[in-house]
Design brief:
single chain, alpha+beta, Glutaredoxin, Glutathione S-transferase Yfyf (Class Pi), Chain A, domain 2, 11 helices, globular, binds glutathione, Omega/Tau-like, glutathione transferase activity, glutathione transferase
Length: 233
């Protein structure tokens, strides 16, 4: 592929169909920003999906990337594509290392599922159980981290686009609960702080993200919802 072909998106011919709170959408937005790819974003309401979206989205999920060639879905696939068609891959070059990163990207998706379990937990006991699962996953992640700024490098890599959106949830949770999710994972804690300062990670959500997330959490009618309402009272 030539460099001209590689920078095929300089005219901004792509559109990322997005939802303001979606951590998978954030992954794609971070890659778009890190690779300086001009694009448009169309935000939709997942509780009232437009017909045009239903017509083009095989799984009814965001993110969705619309290009001149057609539609792509699944955040990992979208991210890999964007990385491939632009210069300078965000992945490591060594095949094993690249595969290892992809393994830990999958692991990141399981943390997102655990986070959904946490904010949906109906009572304190279930919340504590879900918290223990998340801490256990952070301990596994801790064992993968070295002394680099990001997951495995002092330069931002593809995998870092996955962990930024994960840690962002805790900025909101910590407003309402005093539980520490990082008591045994100093490297994860540092990784979180580094990612929270990364411009691509910061800009991956709309300005009203936190208030929208709080509204979303309140509607879960969960233990966390109660904590939020108690604080507001
Ligand atoms: N595996 C998918 C997950 C995407 C996903 O679950 N997106 C959620 C929003 S965060 C969605 O669109 N859900 C559909 C719905 O709520 O109806 C990916 O990586 O893109």
């Amino acid at each position: 592929m030539t460099n001209n072909e590689k920078n095929k998106f300089n005219n901004g011919q792509i559109d990322l169909v997005s939802f303001a709170l979606c951590p998978y959408v954030q992954r794609a937005i971070i890659i778009l920003d890190e690779k300086k790819i001009p694009h448009n974003r169309t935000y939709i309401d997942l509780s009232d999906k437009p017909d045009w979206f239903k017509a083009i989205s095989p799984l009814g999920k965001v993110p969705l990337l619309q290009t001149e060639q057609g539609v792509l879905f699944e955040s990992a696939v979208i991210g890999e594509y964007l990385d491939e068609v632009t210069t300078g891959s965000l992945h490591p070059t060594d095949p094993f290392e690249k595969a290892r990163h992809r393994s830990w990207i999958e692991f990141g998706s399981t943390i997102l599922a655990s986070i959904a379990g946490l904010y949906s937990a109906p009572d304190a006991k279930t919340f504590r159980e879900k918290r223990a699962v998340i801490i256990g996953k952070f301990e596994q992640l801790e064992a993968q981290l070295g002394d680099t700024d990001f997951f495995a490098s002092n330069d931002f890599q593809f995998i870092d686009a996955v962990y930024g959106p994960i840690f962002r949830y805790f900025d909101t949770f910590e407003l309402f609960i005093s539980d520490n999710f990082f008591p045994s994972t100093p490297r994860v804690k540092k990784y979180r702080a580094t990612l929270s300062r990364r411009p691509s990670v910061i800009q991956a959500v709309p300005e009203n993200y936190q208030s929208r997330l709080i509204d979303f959490l309140i509607k879960k009618d969960s233990y966390l919802s109660q904590k939020i309402e108690q604080k507001a009272a």
